[in-house]
């Protein structure tokens, strides 16, 4: 592991997680929980096999990641964050919030995984009517794998892999359009014009909005 050789907390933190792909591995373990190597590889399109092996080894040696052999039928190693590694969660969320101005239009070549929506949506959205019954909105970003389910609970928003049960509304379309609509950057008519399809009760979308009155930058 390369080092900046500086007696500085930021420099030493970057010694551990500053290499290319390291923080994205942390992202995957925050989102997936204990994960197999193949699950991590699928969530990190573009990473070389040997580089993923090297980064996992480095993060494990640093005490950020650990692994254990899973019981049958999994019968393979499961990687997970250590308690110290879990402390990176607010840092990952803060970086995601800082990057809002960069999350405008999705480039044609951009990879997308549906579960990547969980961290940004949970960190920036709230239920505007928390005293009403909880709602469920299924999210189906194009070419992004398994659908995700956005649920409300006591004013908070949670996003997890869809269980296939009925939802109040289903949003299908480009990931950037789904995020822009839920974040309040565009209205439903504009979203539909940008290839978003809505099934179910579109009115429940009014319940979801940014955590503050400030709309996200485009």
What does this structure look like?
Strand 5 and strand 6 form a beta hairpin. This protein has helices at 9-17, 22-32, 37-42, 49-62, 83-86, 89-98, 118-124, 175-182, 188-193, and strands at 35-36, 65-69, 77-81, 125-127, 136-141, 148-153, 156-161, 169-173, 197-200, 208-210. The strands form 3 sheets. A 5-stranded mixed β-sheet has the order 7-6-5-8-9. Strands 1-3-2 form a 3-stranded antiparallel β-sheet. By secondary structure, the chain is of the alpha+beta class. It is globular. Residues 213-218 have low confidence and may be disordered. It has 2 domains: 9-95, Orthogonal Bundle (Arc Repressor Mutant, subunit A), CATH 1.10.10.10; 104-210, SCP2 sterol-binding domain (Nonspecific Lipid-transfer Protein, Chain A).
Quick recap:
This protein is of the alpha+beta class. It has helices spanning 9-17, 22-32, 37-42, 49-62, 83-86, 89-98, 118-124, 175-182, 188-193; strands spanning 35-36, 65-69, 77-81, 125-127, 136-141, 148-153, 156-161, 169-173, 197-200, 208-210. The chain has a five-stranded mixed β-sheet with strand order 7-6-5-8-9.
Secondary-structure blueprint of this entry?
Layout: H1 9-17, H2 22-32, E1 35-36, H3 37-42, H4 49-62, E2 65-69, E3 77-81, H5 83-86, H6 89-98, H7 118-124, E4 125-127, E5 136-141, E6 148-153, E7 156-161, E8 169-173, H8 175-182, H9 188-193, E9 197-200, E10 208-210
Physical arrangement of strands within the biggest beta sheet:
7-6-5-8-9
Return Rg in Å.
Answer: 19 Å
H-E order:
HHEHHEEHHHEEEEEHHEE
| Biggest β-sheet description | 5 strands, mixed
Terminal Cα span: 37 Å
